[in-house]
Input
Amino acid sequence: MFDKLKKIFKNVKNSENDSCCDFNIEEIDENQNSNNSAEKDSCCDLEIAAKSEDEIKNEVDFDRKKQKVKNKYGRIIKEKAGTGCCSIDENKKEIPSFGVGDPLNYANIKSGEYVIDIGSGPGKNCLKAAKIVGDKVKVIGLDMTEEMINSASEQAQNQGLNNVEFVNGDAEDIPFAENYFDVAISDCVINLIPDKEKVFTEIYRVLKKDGRMVISDVVSDKKFPSELKEDDELWCGCVSGAIPEKDYLNLIKKAGFEEIEIVEKNESKQELEGINIFHITVRGIK
Ligand SMILES: C[S@@+](CC[C@H](N)C(=O)[O-])C[C@H]1O[C@@H](n2cnc3c(N)ncnc32)[C@H](O)[C@@H]1O
Output
């Protein structure tokens, strides 16, 4: 296993050393490779038995991927925030960011607008947005990693911001009513999510008519083979969960978005086994 990973990492060219995308084989926790299917109760076993082998495998992998992502980002924010509790080190002051772009820069948020940040992480973009929208509305940061929610909430409190709330939830099933938000932003999150189509459909659902979505994310120029997709460390490092740019844009279109436009595109920063990975910021209107 380690030999295989070392070989793969050797092939990652020009990898940026930011905290979400660094690859550290020491982070691999073989013990966390638990198979969630073992935890299913008997009613779910019956349901699974009716599905094909491939469907079962995908579901199990999807569950494991989410758990791996939670573990990784829970661990990272604890390390960044200091030991023992979730406070960001007072001496460092700066709230960490694990993003790859600047969706806020293209979201043109105005006072009074309802904003949701999908996969808000340490909350940097939410806190910035909260200062723009004013006291009459709330900015929502949605993240499935409890440690991120705790850390971001603490930052909001430290900054005396009452118009931002961090909600623990899954972007594949956004816990808000339809037509609720004016703006949805996200930075370096959807590549980590197994069912990207569902996420875009969910973002579309919770946006008001004419609402806008601005997403920065990692995409590729070719499909990653399943062997690399199955590699949890590459997936959690924002590499092999990326899909080709044109597939990404098609999913946004399929969800119903219009006026889809790439507002920023970075030159290729990484190459893995002949597949280029790069960052885009894309905007769409409901
Ligand atoms: C690379 S970090 C980016 C965090 C933040 N957007 C930033 O720019 O700093 C990815 C974040 O997405 C969150 N995440 C991943 N999958 C998610 C999902 N299905 N639902 C909600 N949050 C998710 C992780 O918990 C993590 O905080």
Notes: Residues 103-285 form a domain with the Rossmann fold fold (CATH 3.40.50.150). The pocket of S-adenosylmethionine is lined by residues 20, 69, 73, 97-99, 119-122, 124, 142-145, 148, 170-172, 187-189, 192-193 (CB under 6 Å).
